[in-house]
C-alpha cells in the first residue's frame, strides 16, 4: 500500500500523480475497514478523499492551516497526518476522535463538530495572522450542506478583501439528508449553465499565458460576458474569486487547480467549487448515501425510531401536527412522516435558529410544531427559544435526541447541557421518559399540551421496554416502594437503577421523575420524610433537576432534608469519546456504581 509509506504530510509530496491515485484507493479501503469496525462517518469521508490528498499535496501542511466544516470529511486528513495508529481505534477511548481536534494533533487547528463554522473560524485565524505579520495560507474545507446555515454568509460578508484565504466547497448535493433550500438549487444552476462553463474553459489557456495584472483585467471583462449566459455568481458578488465547478475525483485536475489557486491566493479570497459523489468507491454508500452517511454500531431499535413511528401515527389523525428538523430527517426516523405528510414536513437544513423561530410562527397560528434537534445543536438556538417561543408562551414541542452522554461522538456532541439551559426559562416543561412506552405517552401528551413550550429528551441508546402507567400527565410514578433509601431517577437511567436494585438485593424506594419541570414535589415530600438517604440521578450537568430541587428546599428552609441528599450529575466538562456505558460508569451512573450507593 502506498499509504504505508506516509508517516508525515511531507511524504505525500514525494509521490507521482499516478501514486496519488493509488493513495486515494488505499485511503478509501482504510476508511471502509475502520468504520466497519468502529462506526463513524462513512459516505462524506469517502467522497472527500481526492480533495484531501490533492490539497495536502499542493499546500504545506506544516505551515498552512486546514479548517474543516464539521469533521465528516477529515478521516483521510487524519490518516495522512501521523494518526493511522490512533485511527485504528477511531472513536474509542484510546483512539482518535471522530472530529478534528487541536488537542489531538498539531495538524488540527480548530475543533469541528457543528456545521457552518469553518469560514468564521478561518477568518478569525486570518486576521490574527495579518496582525502578527505572518505568512501562511488558510484552506477551509466545507460541504454544500453547510451553506444552509446562516453563519456561513455572515463570514462570507466579512471576508471581503482577505488574502491567502481559500475555501473548498465540496458539493455532493447532500449534507446528511438531501441538501434542501435555495442554495441547493443555486449550486445546481451553476452546474447547469454549460454555455458559461464552456466559455470559461475555452479562454483559460489564453489567460494563463498573460501577465497576472493583464489577465485579471481581461478576466473581469469576461465575467460580464459569462454572466449574460449563466447569471451572476453569488460568491463573486461577495468579493470571492470563484473557480469551478471541478471534478472532485480527478486528482490531476484538482492538483492543477489547487496549484493555480495557491499561486494567486494573495489577490483576493477564493472559493473552489468541487463536485464529488458521497460514498465514492463503496457501492453501498453510493446507492444509499443518506443512511450510510455514518455507520452506527447501535443496531437495535432507538428512541428516535419510536418517535418517528408515533408522530406519524398521531399525524394521521391530527392535521395540525407538523415536523421540523435541521437536516436530521433520517436521524429522527422521519422518513415515513415526510412521505405520508410532505406538506407538513419541513427540513430547514443546518439552521437550528431558524427552525425554532419558524416553529414559533407556526404555533402562533394554531399548529402543533414538533422541532427535532439533537441536544448538542439545541444550544445554537438558545436566544430564539427564549425570545421567540418562551416570551410568547407558544406551545412548541422540542424533541431532543442524543440527550445525555454522547458516546463515541465525544465532546462536540455532548448532550449534558440542555436541561441546565432550558430550566432557566419560565413556564417551560421538560419531560424525560424512561422507556419506549413512556416516550410514546410523552409524545401523545405533548401533542395536546397547550400551556406553553415543552421538551422531551431521550438519549442515543437502546430503547428500553419497561412497564408503566400510560397516563403521562402523572408527573412522576413510584416504581418501587421500599425502605431506607429513596432514589429519584430521570429518564433512561431508570433501567440502570432497577438493575442495581436487582443485583444488590436491596429494597429502596424508586421514583421515576418523568418531568424535570415541573417537578413533582408533592410525591417527593411524601416519600422523602420516610427515608434516611436520598439519591438523585441525572444524566446532565449540575444546574438541571439538581438545582431545581436544591433551590426549592433552600427557599423552604428544608436543610435537614438537604443533608440527606446526594446528587449524582455528569461532570461539568465535555465527555471524551468512549462508549456511553463507560461514560455512565465514570460519572457514577452505571448499574454497578449505583449499587454502591445503597
Overall description:
By secondary structure, the protein is an alpha/beta fold. It has 4 domains: 2-193 and 238-286, 3-Layer(aba) Sandwich (Rossmann fold), CATH 3.40.50.970; 195-230; 303-457, Rossmann fold; 477-595, Rossmann fold. Strands 9-8-10-11-13-12-17 form a 7-stranded mixed β-sheet, with helices on both faces. It has a 5-stranded parallel β-sheet with strand order 2-3-4-6-5, sandwiched between helices. Strands 14-16-15-18-19 form a 5-stranded mixed β-sheet, sandwiched between helices. Helix 9 (194-208) packs antiparallel against helix 10. The longest helix has 22 residues, at 17-38. The radius of gyration is 26 Å and the shape is elongated. It starts with 16 loop residues before the first helix and ends with a helix. 51% of the residues are buried. Residues 186-199 and 225-231 have low confidence and may be disordered.
Quote the CATH topology of the largest domain: Rossmann fold
Assigned CATH superfamily of the largest domain: Thiamin diphosphate (ThDP)-binding fold, Pyr/PP domains
Low-confidence runs (pLDDT<50, min 5 residues)?
186-199, 225-231
What's the overall geometry? elongated
Number of strands: 19
Average the pLDDT over all residues and give the rounded result. 85
Task: Label the CATH architecture of the largest domain.
Answer: 3-Layer(aba) Sandwich
Strand order of the largest sheet: 9-8-10-11-13-12-17
Kindly estimate the percentage of residues that lie in beta strands according to DSSP. 15-25%
